[in-house]
Write a structure and sequence with these properties.
8 helices, eight-stranded mixed sheet, 273 residues, alpha/beta
Length: 273
Amino acid sequence: MEKKKVSVAYVLLKTVMIVLIIFFASDGLMQFISYSFYKGDRKFKEVRYEPIELEIKASGKESLYGYGYNLDSKSSSVILFFGGSMYIAYNSVGMYGGLFGCPFLSVDYYGSQKSRGKMNLQTMQKSATDLYDYAKSRYPDRDIYVFGHSYGCGMAAYLASVRECKHLVLASGYRNLSDLYNKIIPIFWGPLKVFIKNNIRPDQYAKKTVCPITIIGSDADKTLSASLQQKLAALYSSSASPAECKIFHGISHEDYFATEEVIHFLSGIVEKE
């Protein structure tokens, strides 16, 4: 009888250990994949606009770089853009920098591309606030608009929760990283989200956001669905400025900022305000 009890306890302990290993390994794998999209030489060979390199912050072992376009524009607006997978600062600016007629800036997170340091949640957040502070110093009297797409929506949402922004735009966003991770490894449900070590949490950032918010999605987005965008918008319902949710028709996940209808809609926001 005693042997049986020991055997059952051993099996239970072994099962728990295996489950924990699976969750920690899955989180580590998903984080590695996510960060890898921003590291290495991933510049597009052809871009629509010629990006201008920016030295945002230089401090020895930790230096921050990005790219910009329309830097000398007299517009009263400045756009800070946080791109999704593969959209490092060069690619973001190179593909979208000339769409809005105002200074358009994007940053490479610490530990990625030319920016030195270690890439993790804290340094990604610092990259966002350092970009904002740079833009505010360079354009002190301008309105700061923060745009995010896909994975980049997390840092865009974070920045709008800790800095004064004119408007936050999230294109195909998510509530927390479990919405993304579960598309590939569907195990991070409910309280199991606790196993995501460096979780990016727009669901928490929403509580501290006071600027106007626009969330856009598409009925053809197979990565982060239109219904998810409506759920994300609902998180801002108790904020100082509840989110507007705009669902477009027939736009794939990668094509929001390559679609004239979307650019016209967003230009109306920037120009109207």
